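Hey, I'm writing a tutorial for new members on how sequence and structure tokens pair up, and I'd like a real worked example in the thread rather than a made-up one. If someone can provide the structure for the chain below, I'll link this post from the tutorial.
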Amino acid sequence: MPTFYLEPGVTGFRGRHDPPLPSIDLTACRTAWYTAARAARGRVGEFTEQEYPQNVHIAAVDNQAAALDDMGFVVLSAARLLSPITESDTSALSTEEWCRIKHWRPTTLGAALFNAWD
């Protein structure tokens, strides 16, 4: 499995002097999930909008989510999400992100990306 590059801000944290975190439009997320579900002849389950301390919007898509790739979202496999964070390229993470990682000690990439740290 090739090394996965983590973009700055991907953990949902930033320092006072870091650039603003990227935001994902809620409408774009909903549209992508429903489009993916229709393409897969599946359905979207419960949808949860990002709210502090959670750092992501959450929805379950039954069947498969390959259509999300076509809409510009990165779909990570279970194997990738369960891989040790040390197997990812973390060179672009900010000092603040590293402080949070050292404090919370996520062991997998998924735990670092999809967190509700405060």
